[in-house]
Design goal:
Layout (H helix, E strand, L loop, with lengths): L5 E7 L12 E6 L5 H9 L17 E6 L3 E5 L10 H17 L3 E9 L6 H12 L4 E6 L6 H15 L9 E3 L8 H14 L1 H5 L2
Parallel strand pairs: 2-4, 2-5, 5-6, 6-7
Antiparallel strand pairs: 1-3, 3-4
């Protein structure tokens, strides 16, 4: 897939304020500081489309971007550490889960995992929640440029071993680097494949 157009649509705090669900939608989410904004900018080829920050937990709204006038890319607030109150974090969690369960045109959720770290309990629990609620997702291992190829393979193998303790099989996964552009083609081709499969469904809306 070649991205020729990427436009910010709106930021929403409540589900009722989201854009019309007439196009396929792909959400990106992960723990704070996982490199989500950098990945989105790398995928779209727009340096400042998603706002990057040295402060974890900066994204606090549901941000929609329209890609090629054809599908939505959604930047969700990170979970885990955020420099905000416990009450606000609870509201973020409620907002995220409501969005994931209620957004009827959501095709896939990309769950970002920092490739440098071992499997984190908070990520595994979030994946279990996605599975229980029948929400399709794929894993994106970020910051692959920080590891050697051997280290990266070992990290992914460790993650697979941990996941397969509770899962029958691994979900689709991608390896990425916002620095080198690794994973860009694979992720965009995956989105294009899903869009093609669903073209009849959305053409009727």
């Amino acid at each position: 897939m070649k991205i020729t157009k990427a436009d910010f649509v709106k930021s929403s705090k409540e589900i009722k304020d989201l854009p019309s669900g007439d196009k396929p939608e792909y959400a990106f989410i992960g723990r704070s500081n996982v490199g989500k904004s950098s990945l989105i900018n790398m995928l779209t080829g727009r340096k400042n489309l998603a706002k990057t920050s040295s402060t974890p937990g900066k994204t606090q709204l549901i941000n929609h971007f329209l890609i090629n006038d054809n599908w939505y890319l959604t930047d969700l607030p990170g979970y885990g550490y955020a420099k905000t109150s416990k009450a606000n974090r609870s509201e973020f969690q409620k907002m995220i889960r409501s969005y994931l369960k209620e957004r009827s045109n959501l095709v896939n959720t990309f769950l970002l995992i920092d490739a440098r770290h071992k499997a984190q309990k908070i990520d595994l629990e979030f994946m279990q929640w996605l599975g229980r609620n029948h929400i399709p997702f794929a894993i994106v291992f970020t910051k692959a440029d920080k590891l050697s190829s051997n280290q990266l393979a070992k990290q992914i193998k460790t993650y697979q071993t941990e996941m397969l303790r509770q899962w029958a099989s691994m979900p689709p996964y991608f390896v990425s680097s916002s620095v080198s552009g690794l994973g860009r083609k694979a992720i965009l081709d995956y989105i294009e494949h899903l869009n093609t499969q669903l073209s009849n469904h959305f053409s009727k809306k």
